Amino acid sequence: MNHVGTGARKNTAALLLGFLILAGGCTASRVKSKEKSSPVKTLAVLSINRSSEDFAECVLKGIHRANRKLTFVDSQEFRDTFFPWFEPGTAPEKADDLILLLNKPLVQEKINQLGLRYVILVSGTTKEYEWDHHIDAGGWGICIWGGYGEKSYHAKIMTRILDLEEPASSSELSVSKFKSSYYLCLIIPFLYIPSTAEYHACKEMGEKLARFVTDQSVKE
After folding, report:
1. Which comes out higher in pLDDT, residue 135 or 173?
2. Which end of the chain, C or N, has fewer beta carbons within 10 A?
3. What is the dihedral sign for C-alpha 198, 201, 207, 211?
4. DSSP alpha helices (H): ranges in the chain?
5. What is the helix, strand, coil percentage profile of the chain, to 5?
6. Can you give the pTM of this predicted structure?
7. Can you give the pLDDT at residue 78?
8. Where are the domains of the chain?
9. pLDDT, average across residues 46-63
């Protein structure tokens, strides 16, 4: 009788162990499936026109500083893939026209090839104001006694965010920054402090865009 009881217990233990192994395998499978359903978000950052290329570059750096987990498609690779639709000055300006373009089957096929989720179109301007001099005698470059000068800058960056997940959609963000540059002089000008308006505008825009993309990922 004891041998029978021992054999039964061994069979029960073996069945329980087998069930736990299968359950663990199913759990691992579900985890892997969940990981695959959350792909890394890939972006392309482009200038709307040639005069905004520096802004596009600094906005890209701002996004990368804000979220290093995001990946990027090189702007030239993107333009080559979608030529001639997104060359500077040729991309549709109206949001509705952009959406129609992005929803075309051929464009969607190229989007899938690159693994793209977002295209960010950047435009920017910087307005310079006149120098405001505060000196005892002379002027900028001819400082006889002493003083300082201040020059204001207004940097503005506008971005259009194209979400390429079917059906494509469009959103907009903008940032505006006022900063000044200064010079100090004593007999001659000896210290110049440049404006950081563009840097701070790019930094804030990069943070906004990184947050926008992250928030969209969380909602999904």
Report:
1. 173
2. N
3. negative
4. 2-36, 53-66, 75-81, 95-102, 105-114, 197-219
5. 45, 30, 25
6. 0.69
7. 85
8. 1-37, 38-219
9. 90
